[in-house]
Write a structure and sequence with these properties.
Bound molecules: NADP nicotinamide-adenine-dinucleotide phosphate
Number of domains: 2
Distance between the termini: 20 Å
Number of strands: 16
Radius of gyration: 19 Å
Helix content: 25-40%
Shape: globular
Order of helices and strands: EEEHEEEEEHHEHEHEHEHEHEHEHE
Oligomer: single chain
CATH topology of the largest domain: Quinone Oxidoreductase, Chain A, domain 1
Strand content: 25-35%
CATH architecture of the largest domain: Alpha-Beta Complex
Number of helices: 10
Length: 313
Amino acid sequence: MTTMKAVRIHAYGGPEVLHHEDAPLPTLNPDDLLIRVRAAAVNPVDWKIREGYLQGFLKHRLPLILGWDVSGDVVEVGPEATAFRVGDEVYARSDIERDGAYAEYIAVKASDAARKPAALDHVHAAAVPLTALTAWQSLVDAAQLQAGQTVLIHAAAGGVGSLAVQLAKARGARVIATASAVNIGLVTELGADQFIDYTRTRFEDVAREVDVVFDTIGGDTQERSWQVLKPGGMLVSVVSPPPEATAAAHGARRAFVFIQPSGVQLTTIAQLIDEGKMKPIIHTVLPLTEVRQAHAISQGGHARGKIVLRVAD
Ligand SMILES: NC(=O)c1ccc[n+]([C@@H]2O[C@H](COP(=O)([O-])OP(=O)(O)OC[C@H]3O[C@@H](n4cnc5c(N)ncnc54)[C@H](OP(=O)(O)O)[C@@H]3O)[C@@H](O)[C@H]2O)c1
């Protein structure tokens, strides 16, 4: 067998550039795993790359297979990928500069993968890596969020935010969360202590003395976030780098996070999930052939949790 079914783009553009077609099987580096994809999650970065927005930032060659969140079975192990065996059930956020997981098979560097949480099936496991690593690298690595601190999490019903709320609670923080009113039940169930409907209330009018703001929106939301911070507090953005001069003017610290793959962190995250401290929220599950619809939902900006593509049973 030399080919597989995959969704590729041959040019940048709207959802119509996504084509379900035959593509070559991935070739393995010595430290890679070949994973039979059972499910792949859709993230906003997928349609941002499809549209061509990240051309200056990431090295990609077309045609390109999108989708860098995967859960599946190991079917081949490179000679240097000694931590895994054929048959292992794994999940990963793979290297975004290589072909992705909208396909029957994907090659993933072994150190970017981990055994999937035992408590989750592949559809739910695929929903975790990119968003959970983003939350971890923002709240734990960058902000070093501590028990008793207060964190304001924007877009708490989204893919990143819904895991960030749970991670912050697992670390003993107090969580203020923004979303629209339709998501109050979800965000409260995830553990938020204070809910702000951003469509009716300006969050800066009610949030005070915040240690950490987690900005998943950017623009005006980022600009208005400085004023809720305590002196010495930190604004962490995953959307646009907070300006150093603005941070200094507010006596605050700032960080910009661009998620890095990490099998080690995914192992810790799997433990939290298996202990019942975190769970992914699924907006919808679609077959791989309906990827254009999946992108349209993601691009609409109001997904409640994750959009997952089912690739194989
Ligand atoms: N730098 C990185 O490494 C990195 C990693 C992951 C993600 N990101 C970026 O982070 C952003 C969020 O990603 P995601 O996967 O969480 O997106 P997502 O799941 O598509 O976010 C959708 C959510 O955003 C909420 N929302 C929209 N506008 C809002 C506002 N003004 N205030 C509060 N909530 C609002 C919606 O809630 P309502 O329906 O209630 O409005 C919805 O639940 C994207 O831009 C993504 O590209 C960056």
